[in-house]
Amino acid sequence: xxxxxxxxVAASVVMLVMAGAYAQEDAxxxxxxSDKLISISGSGHQRTFACDGRKLxxxxxxxxxxxxxxxxxxxxxxxxxxxxxxxKPKGRLSITGTDHTVRWKSEGKIAQSVTGTGHRITRVK
Length: 125
Description:
Elements: H1 3-18, E1 31-33, E2 37-43, E3 46-50, E4 55-61, E5 64-68, E6 71-79, E7 82-98, E8 101-105, E9 111-117, E10 120-123
Parallel strand pairs: 2-4, 3-5, 4-6, 5-7, 6-7, 7-8, 7-9, 8-10
Antiparallel strand pairs: 1-2
């Protein structure tokens, strides 16, 4: 492996560790956390994140994602993800794909975009 690639891989590992990511036996794909975004991709991740106004992006299959605090925006793409979250008033919830289970709450109205089939979307109090 070339030195530049080694540094890039090392930096990625450090970023994931600093973000609190950990390997799960059945999970594949990346989990990235920054000051503006929480991004989960691949399949099978089961995690809880403090949203703190960030965008939550769940892409792939079979993830179970819970958030604490309020997310500015939530985007879910793929098949069979389970997401429990809170969206800020006037925020956005976007769901695309098949068979997602989404439980969400908000202190006000939000914009919603739902495409695909078989979703179970519930607003909770």
